[in-house]
Amino acid sequence: MALVVQKYGGTSVGTIEKIRNVARRVARTYDDGNDMVVVVSAMAGETNKLVALAEEICEFPSEREYDVLVAAGEQVSVALLAMVLQSMGYKAKSYLGWQIPIYTDNAHTKARIDEIQDANIHEDLRSGTIVIVAGFQGIDRDGNITTLGRGGSDTSAVAVAAALKADVCEILTDVDGVYTTDPRIVPEASKMEKISYDEMLEMASLGSKILQIRSVEFAKKYDVVVHVRSSLNDNPGTLVMKEDSDMETVLVSGVTYNKDEAKISVLRVPDQPGIAARLFSPLSDANITVDMIIQNVSHEGSTDLTFTVPRSDFKKALKIVEEAASKVGASGVESNESIAKVSIVGVGMRSHSGVASKMFTTLSTEGVNIQMISTSEIKVSCVIDDKYTELAVRVLHEAFGLDKGQLTQE
Ligand code: ADP
Ligand code: ASP
Ligand code: MG
Q: Would you say the CB of residue 348 lies under 6 angstroms from ligand 2?
């Protein structure tokens, strides 16, 4: 008998009919003799609707109340799934984050799980109950409801699997695995049999929304093998796991894009010690993550600083940066929301040269201007005008031999 954690995403529970399909699959796995913990997202589109309601009221709603609001989506789907399973004759019980409890820090809208008390779950499993857990939510130590950031049910699932030392952690979704790029953009994308934690971390943080980045961090930290597969068929999906020796032979494993960032430039910042700290500390105090940062070579004692922030935090960030910029004596602030970041990822880059230059040449051949560049051991990212995103992803995918049927070589 194994302990199986399955997570079903929003599209997989988008209608009652789909919830019935999920229930049949859960029941089948249970009937095979497994203990079952099921983590579910809100029905497709529900979280967006709740966010839109908050936005109708004000631009910056209280983050505490935002979390109370958006956590409601999962309350609906867990109850519906439990009802369907019960109507099929199974013992099933739904739990919200606070009822388990899943403890998080108090960073509303992007909280981090720090402890899961699993006694309730174990007791239910012992009595043969299928446990259904609301994804995306937790509770802080002061009893406030928190949410884990968009796509956070993935993280709930992996954290629950880690806490329970589950034998299997399956993320069931509307594609049958992790592809070399988003198959909605490039139909020639190929499914990977396996991908290392580090590559998946890069892909997730560079925009591939198939898994939330924190779910991969959890999986890596606690050695949880995550199986990403379709909720509609039994095809083997993609294993997200420790790196093995064949992974290094592939030069580039995936291409990602991210249209969720915006660019802010602070102009003619005095080039003195401590200035960057004075600009960036207020952003980190406001829990805004700054991604790429570029500082130009200093000219006559001043320099330009350009960086990217999540588009969802853009207005808030701009306000903070404008205040900080005037305090440090910068001459002005410019911003651009119409940018996209395209990236190539692969552990094979560690041992091969020429990958970045091939990326730049490929983009330039298509007339795509590169605004910012950043690299790590296993990725290269370029910021470009967002109207070229799809084109850039397609040509890079082809140039690095990732299209279906092309051989991955080098
Ligand atoms: P869920 O609702 O199940 O959480 P998501 O919409 O969050 O599903 O994630 C699945 C989607 O991720 C797919 O429909 C696909 O368009 C997108 N996606 C982006 N990058 C990739 C990739 N590299 N491989 C597979 N899917 C990807
Ligand atoms: N319902 C949440 C969202 O739409 C969490 C999730 O689906 O993972 O972001
Ligand atoms: Mg998702």
A: no
| Separation between Cα atoms, residue 343 and residue 361, nearest integer Å | 14
Q: Give the per-residue pLDDT at 90.
A: 98
Residue among 6, 110, 136, 218 whose CB has most ligand 2 atoms within 8 A, to mutate: 136
Mean local confidence (pLDDT), 127-152: 98
Residue 222 lies in a domain: no
> Is 237 close to ligand 2, i.e. is its CB under 6 Å away?
no
pLDDT at residue 114 greater than cutoff 60: yes
User: Considering only CA atoms, which of 119, 219, 202 is closest in space to residue 159?
Assistant: 219
pLDDT digits (tens, 9 = 90+) for 342-376: 999 999 898 888 999 999 999 999 999 999 999 99
Question: Could you tell me if residue 232 is inside a domain?
Answer: no
List residues, by chain if needed, whose CB lies under 5 Å from ion ligand 3: 9, 151
Task: Report d(CA 287, CA 107) in Å as an integer.
Answer: 8
pLDDT at residue 245 greater than cutoff 90:
no
Q: Which ligand is nearest to the CA of 152?
A: 2
**Residue carrying structure tokens 């909720």:** 231
Residues 385, 297: one domain?
yes
Per the structure, the count of domains in the chain is 2
pLDDT, mean over the chain: 95
Predicted confidence at residue 410, as pLDDT, reads 42
Task: Mark whether 251 and 162 lie in a shared domain.
Answer: no
- Say if residue 286 is in the same domain as residue 394: yes
294/398 same-domain check: yes
Quick check: pTM over 0.85? yes
With the most atoms of ligand 1 within 8 angstroms of its CB, the residue from 11, 175, 402 to mutate is: 175
Are 120 and 252 within one domain?
A: no
Distance CA 260, CA 312 (A): 7
What's the mean pLDDT in 161-186? Answer: 96
